[in-house]
UniProtKB/TrEMBL annotation:
It comes from Thermus composti. Signal peptide: none annotated. PROSITE patterns: GNAT. CDD domains: NAT_SF. Keywords: Acyltransferase, Transferase. Residues 9-157 form the N-acetyltransferase domain. InterPro entries: Acyl_CoA_acyltransferase, Bact_Acetyltransf, GNAT_dom. This is N-acetyltransferase family protein. Pfam families: Acetyltransf_1 (PF00583).
Length: 157
């Protein structure tokens, strides 16, 4: 019998060798790429992005695991835009696991680990009303729209 369980989420730093896992996650999230009007990246694009990421000491990226299963990805930058800030560029929950509280739990986990940062920004790309509603529901407020396709949200930590 299953019953109610609260499973822990684990944030595992993404290594270059995780590129196939991250690529699989992207392919399992077709709705997101449709929403932002892009093709899901190919494996080579994922590898290139991970190399870029690892060359920037302020960037952080984690696979989100629940019981050894990849259920999401998070990518953010420390000390950006200002020294006391952090900026979330992508929180992605696997499409078949969205709407089950994982996004909220992952965000809470992240905020609990941003020791020292005073503010967390979230940059929402494209026409993504669900993401905007999600961040507003998690205590973020809209700051500004930057360019045609970027909306900035922020909350104090
Ligand atoms: N429409 C409106 N609000 C919703 C929806 C929806 N379809 N789904 C969830 N919410 C709200 C609910 O009110 C919920 O509130 P509750 O905690 O009181 O129940 C709250 O959001 C949290 O819901 P979760 O189940 O935790 O949301 P989820 O696990 O689906 O994570 C996320 C939200 C990250 C937006 C996820 O749906 C996702 O990965 N979407 C595709 C990728 C994406 O757009 N990511 C954000 C890009 S922008 C950025 O990361 C800075």
């Amino acid at each position: 019998m299953g019953g109610m369980r609260t499973l822990n989420l684990v944030f595992r730093p993404v290594l270059l060798q995780d590129a196939p896992l991250l690529h699989e996650l992207y392919l399992a999230c077709p709705g997101y790429f449709t929403l932002i009007g892009m093709e899901p990246p190919g494996l080579e694009d994922v590898v290139r992005d991970l190399v870029t990421l690892q060359n920037d000491p302020r960037r952080r990226a984690f696979l989100i695991l629940e019981e050894d299963e990849v259920v999401g990805y998070v990518d953010y930058k420390l000390h950006y835009p200002e020294a006391q800030d952090a900026t979330l560029s992508l929180l992605l929950i696997r499409e078949d696991r969205q709407g089950q509280g994982l996004g909220r739990r992952a965000l809470a986990h992240l905020m609990g680990h941003l020791a020292g940062a005073e503010r967390l920004y979230a940059v929402v790309y494209g026409n993504n009303p669900r993401a905007k509603a999600f961040f507003q529901g998690q205590g973020f407020r809209h700051v500004k729209d930057g360019g045609p396709a970027l909306s900035w949200y922020v909350r104090e930590l």
